[in-house]
Amino acid sequence: AQSVTQLGSHVSVSEGALVLLRCNYSSSVPPYLFWYVQYPNQGLQLLLKYTSAATLVKGINGFEAEFKKSETSFHLTKPSAHMSDAAEYFCAVSESGGYNKLIFGAGTRLAVHP
Amino acid sequence: DAGVIQSPRHEVTEMGQEVTLRCKPISGHDYLFWYRQTMMRGLELLIYFNNNVPIDDSGMPEDRFSAKMPNASFSTLKIQPSEPRDSAVYFCASSFSLNSGGSHYEQYFGPGTRLTVT
Predict the structure, then answer these.
(1) 3-state secondary structure of A83
(2) Which residue of B has its CA nearest to A48?
(3) What's the pLDDT score for residue B106?
(4) SS3 for B85?
(5) Residues of B in contact with A107 (CB under 8 A)
(6) How many angstroms separate the CA of residue A14 from the nearest CA in chain B?
(7) Do A49 and B106 lie within an 8 Å CB cutoff?
(8) Rg (Cα) of chain B, in Å, rounded?
């Protein structure tokens, strides 16, 4: 069965520093992978997705993620953090079977300080 | 498109009362999902529908919870009777399948309903 592990429930960075949020997945079939962002008091918004095309995926707000099959990882990065990036980030993997179901990780709360 | 619409945005009710949460998915989407989010348990999938038919309700916590989708543009999640431990944010999401021209299971979330049961 598919699963997602997000390492670190809380990450804190300085404004302008590199953001790295870790996600490892388990899947018996080639997966589709997603990163969602949730700002306070809002729903989840798609940040980017991997769909078996390019392994380096670029998303909104300067974020990108790299699919590494050998490491079963899909880590999210941003070269320079901005205060507005403070939010909770969720990694998700599609479940096989064709039912559009996503398996979400526990989330990582990103804090950005001046 | 207006996106996924949920109502109400906030609901405060007393223990034992019936609560009904509503969702309007994005037009043309054939999948609809109900999630619950709490600090303790994170994001939990409660139930999902395909073409208005419930596919998997194994996440529904107990018989007090029920969900319906009478047509492609409307779904409800009902809690009867409500209890304080039901306090959470409830999200509805929709997507459309590859057969319908969808894009790799991407789900679109509504803004959520914040439920407080006192």
Answers:
(1) helix
(2) B106
(3) 84
(4) helix
(5) 42-43
(6) 25
(7) yes
(8) 14
> Which amino acid appears at position A88 of this protein?
E
Please indicate if any CB of chain B lies within 8 Å of the CB of A43.
Answer: yes
CB A62 within 8 A of CB A81: no
C-alpha span between A49 and A92 (Å, rounded) = 9
Q: Which residues in chain B show pLDDT less than 50?
A: none
Side-chain half-sphere of B109: how many Cα atoms within 13 Å? 24
Question: For residues A89 and A107, what is the distance between their CA atoms, to the nearest angstrom?
Answer: 5
- Record: contact A43-B43, CB cut-off 8 A: no
- Chain A contact present for B101, CB below 8 A: no
- A103 has which bridge partners? A93
pLDDT at A106: 93
Mean pLDDT of chain A: 91
Among residues A1, A5, A10, the alpha carbon closest in space to that of A28 is found at A1
Strand ranges inside B8-117, DSSP E:
10-13, 19-24, 31-38, 42-50, 53-56, 65-71, 74-79, 88-95, 108-109, 113-117
d(CA A31, CA A52): 8
Which of these, A41, A60, A38, lies nearest to A49 by C-alpha position?
A: A60
Residue pair A69/A62 in contact (Cβ under 8 Å)? The answer is: no
Q: What is the DSSP string of A12-67?
A: EEETTS-EEEEEEEE-SSPPPEEEEEE-TTS-EEEEEEE-SS-SEEE-GGG-EEEE
Are B106 and B80 in contact by the 8 Å Cβ rule? The answer is: no
